[in-house]
Amino acid sequence: MQHIVLSVGRSTSSPETSEIAAVPRSLLRALRARLSALLCIKTTARDKDADEATSNGRGVARGEDHTVRGEGDVARDEGESEIEYESYATDDGLEPLATDISDRIPIEIYEKIIEHMDRSTLPNASLVSRAWYPRATFQLYHTIVIARRARYDLLVEQLRTSSRVQRWLQSTHKVVLGYDTRGQPWFRAGIPFLDAFPLVFGHACPSLQVLDIRWILRPNMHPTFHRALRQFQHITALRLHHIELSNIAQLRRIVHAVMSLEELVLDNLSLSQPQLPDSAGARFQDDPFRGPCNIRLKRLRVEANDNRHIKAFGRIAYWLACSGICSSLIELVTFFDGETVLATEPVNRLLEVSAQSLTSFHCQSHLELRDRSPWTLVHNTALRQLTLGLNFNPYGPTEDSDWACAASELRGAFSTVRSYQLEHIAVHFKFQLFDPPNEDNFGQDWKQLDSELRSLHDVMVRPYFEALRDVKVEMEVVYNPDRHSKKSVDDFASAMASSLRRLFMPWHDRGILAIITT
Predict the structure, then answer these.
(1) Tens of pLDDT, residues 343-352
(2) DSSP label at 239?
(3) pTM over cut 0.90
(4) CA gyration radius for the chain?
């Protein structure tokens, strides 16, 4: 027997209840379905915890009642009675129909959505309901961005006065210092604050794993900065962007202070002091911060956009190689924009030191070296993934074209491979389209390039490449939309794709070549 309770207006009982009980079951189910379509589903954001939530020092509005209406809802005049569906219970074991939207959708789905929300949306999401608050606030404090001194001072004050902020900071995973979403560099952000950050937040963020410093690391940092960094005992990734240091010793102090370091990013670092003569190298032994180092990096990423930064990288690479920090390197990523020859020796030094531990190597640079490889992979016998980037103009004279240079450099790079475990190769081609496309230019005289192609193809069929699963060639075409139509660019890309298939013919014949236009 079924029992259904309906309340109309303010009434909690009705004489017709006994008559309703005698209604056939099929009619009751139809009535129940109709009522559920007419219900007004409400979610209330009155949450005592959520009312006090803040976002990195920025308060959010108090919760308010929000009404979400179903498709079957209709507006009611003031005098009409409101039908409220209180509950139902049946003898056949049916579960009650939830009236709260948060009860109808699993909380796991909400959590996945919250994980992909923009940071500016998270404060409002934390006020939606009690169920949303933990996940939204967790995401809010998962990554903290401090761009200016004012934000830093506000967070310090909240850390001192709010137990709630203290609790959430304990779960912070990443801190970005000095990056401003409006693109303002650090010298517009006010008084420096990085010197005091490790002292203040060293114990407040025990779960911090990623420290990202941009612009604000100075050559004259306070001596306590390096010592206080040791309080972050769980940092595994240190990322330094666009900073100037006095010398290698200052970088060494910072790196040695992060004892659990596994990933290091050096993006356009410069050194203000000139390089010492070779005879003065013994001075490194007198540095009190030198000492034994147990750090073993797993991932290293280096970027240098001009010759000054490439030269600084050369000095840094020498120290990294000699210190043994890169002896267990798994992944090496390098980006250079300048005279590539300046980076050849430092990169090869790191490749040699990493030896059998290296499984992934990514190098992107301009084509400036011909008839020889800019890097040597003979020591990396466990290499599984190789990524190369080539930039050139396809419209040069055939006898001295970038196609010949590309074939030569690819042959030089592939000929040094000594790993039987290589499974993935990716090559990124960047085509600069300056002049309007001319079909005559598409017909490269490949006969004059046959010598280079034969040498390249002979290398591609070596036993080291038998384990290859896929070769992905990404083609990027840079053009002026005011001078080139979309059709002409598509025709150009089609012609270049045909040339690329010719360049990688042995792998194309194996069916493992994929050309992608980005």
Answers:
(1) 889 999 999 9
(2) E
(3) no
(4) 32
